[in-house]
Amino acid sequence: MAPERPGGVSGAELGEEAQAHADRMRAHLVGRIHEAGGWISFEHYMEAALYAPGLGYYSAGARKLGPGGDFTTAPELSPLFGACLARQCAEVFDRLEGGSILEIGAGSGALAADILSRLESLGRLPARYRVLDVSADLRDRQRRTLEKRVPHLIGCVEWLELPPTADFDGVILANEVLDALPVARFRWHPSRCEELGVAIEGDRLAWAARPASAALTLACDALAQAAGGWTDGYVSEYCARLPAWTAEVTRALGRGLALWIDYGLPRRQYYLPERRDGTLMCHLRQRAHDDPLVHPGLQDITAWVDFTALAQACTPAGFALAGFCTQTHLLAALGVDQEMHTLAGSDAHRYARFAGQARRLMLPGEMGERFKAMAWLRNLEMPLRGFSLQDLRHTL
Ligand SMILES: C[S@@+](CC[C@H](N)C(=O)[O-])C[C@H]1O[C@@H](n2cnc3c(N)ncnc32)[C@H](O)[C@@H]1O
Description:
The chain is an alpha/beta fold. The protein has helices spanning 11-14, 16-35, 42-51, 74-77, 79-96, 110-121, 136-149, 214-227, 242-250, 267-270, 307-314, 327-333, 336-344, 348-362, 364-368, and strands at residues 40-41, 100-104, 129-132, 157-160, 168-175, 184-189, 192-201, 204-211, 234-238, 253-265, 281-284, 287-289, 300-302, 305-306, 320-326, 371-378. Helix content is 39%, strand content 23%. The structure holds S-adenosylmethionine. S-adenosylmethionine binds next to helix 4.
């Protein structure tokens, strides 16, 4: 049956409560658009749709991750992911003779539970495991996950709503968080640049363009040049807030590693002339589509990460760029094979299940190549095992 609404999910499927939430979110957005004189930038739309207090996707109470949610991340798919990252943390702790972890955007808490379990079995528990997450309902869910899975370790876990201010040494982890940072959407013409935003047409939210600011025009001209030129009408995204945000969330790290994992590309590939519609992707009830104007507040809205921009943010934030590779190579280098044996023990069925999960995490057509990992080191020089099999820094 064809959906009643665009975006792949019908109103009936959403249910009354979700519909009522979407209606409140839409009323909020309409109010903001009227207040702003009939138009808001896409960046402000995305910020409101994801983070408006009590209404935004991450501020309100939808299930979001895992079965019955909207999308599945690597830690939801398999404990192998966390077990491998635990090994990278342990290597850094060995060098620092201890340390803490700050996980940014911890989702259901699955990654925290997997990492803590594996670090415990390696005898390398962190002094503290801090979670920085904007979502109150996900912070509750993380606590429940950890109370269930590692009740004896809950004492070392702490939840933060703002970046930490007290210095610590150790590891910062962020898996699939950068893709939620609000982005500007632009349309490029040889003689001018437009910023795409949201207006009201009849009773619908609709795309509308305005001349881009001088700052956005300058940024887009530089991107066009890096990409080797675009044709008239090229549409894509640009995340202006990435440098300030990454600097802020990593400020308290004294010595250690910041590990970013997300889907994205080096700039030249991200802004390829043939990718004429950008990289926006929405997730609702395990279906992906590219219309962020439907179901505001009910669906996740993401944009791919420009890893060249992330690399450029590294030095001003006080770090050295220590590695860039695909998720496949990260997990292979961290010993995913061994982790499969460790987690499965002598149970052949469990081993077969883990082998299937490893394929989804690592095959190029699945998550293996779309997802990349980038390592930043601050006041610490050491080879990182996770980046020992592949070095893609020259592609940035
Ligand atoms: C796509 S989920 C990924 C969850 C988890 N890292 C995983 O891999 O399963 C994004 C997570 O980041 C959180 N988040 C989104 N924007 C954030 C921000 N600006 N600061 C901190 N957390 C954020 C969300 O609440 C959610 O927990």
